[in-house]
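Researcher: I'm comparing several assemblies side by side, and this is the next one on my list. It has 362 residues spread over two chains. Same procedure as the others: predict the full complex and return the structure.
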Amino acid sequence: MRSRASAADVGAGSRVAVSRPRGLVLTLAAVLGALCIASLTSVRPTLAYFSDSPTAESGTITGHTVAPPASATCSSSVLNATVTWPADTRYDYEVVLRKVSNSTIVSTTQVTGTTSSIQYSGLSAFGVVVGAGQIDFNVEIRSKLATTLSWVSSTVHTYASIRVLAILIGGTVSCTT
Amino acid sequence: MLGLVSGTGAVGTYAYWSDQATLTTGGFDSGTLDLTVDGTLAGQAGTYTKSAFTLSDMIPGESVASSLSLENGGSVALTYTATATASGALAPGLTFRVYTGGAASNSGTAAAGNRVGSCSGTSVFGPTTLTGSAASVIASARQLDPGDDETLCIVATLSSSAANALQGQPATASFVFHAQQLGAP
């Protein structure tokens, strides 16, 4: 049964008559508010998602080790000595002629390109003067990368021994490997 | 007596008709998100070693290229990015480049010291040295729909200024692909 409030009722403070419409409005507002909140909540995207994280690894990548010549041969004739070694197209070579008696370096020669030999010709190539007597020398060879000269073989290896005999009337050279 | 009968007759029946129906839905299956590498690593995560992506006896200036095939083997569209790391004593001397959509080619010989790897495609990273900290090599997310695939190509180069101390040293690189469903936050 619906109550009807008159002006007199309102003036008389009949709270029952006026409280029902106000309560209805408040209820509707609350419902609408809740619906609005619910609708706002429903459009928020999910934070969950599917994922996958496969990993691909390379094989091992290894740097080259610069190696000195595996071997060398030495040949001599009169006052010449020639040292020859197997060529590696990647390398240049640094050849050191060292006096055995005091380890003095007589000469350091850069051998480049496709060359893989060195010839010492005459007493001057050994820094020897006429009449100096018998002097022994060692030949050391170090490999270097032709494209990156800072990459050198770590092992200094003696490949040949050269004996020079310088007498007053000339001299002879002999060598062994 | 009549009152007794009428009293008894006023009790209602407790029997009633009823019915019930069951609704059975169709099946609900979750989608799958799966990024495979060279046709491997189906399912979640995993590690695949690209054995062809290797080079021994590398001298400064040489390089090697290798390609990877990435495929969306799942049922939902995905996007992916990638990060990479490198380890091993040779790593500081190596630089890496990454290309999308490219193919790898390699030429030269170890004996001549002239091996060169190259990639076609679009360069998206490098040349950069990789370290132990993950570097973003594919920063912009790339999309793959279910069944789609694309090729990545990677070039590793030993820098021409690599230090002499790197002789004989090894390195490996690792690439992690971060795939997630399309539209993920």
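Model: For your comparison table: Chain A has a mean pLDDT of 80.
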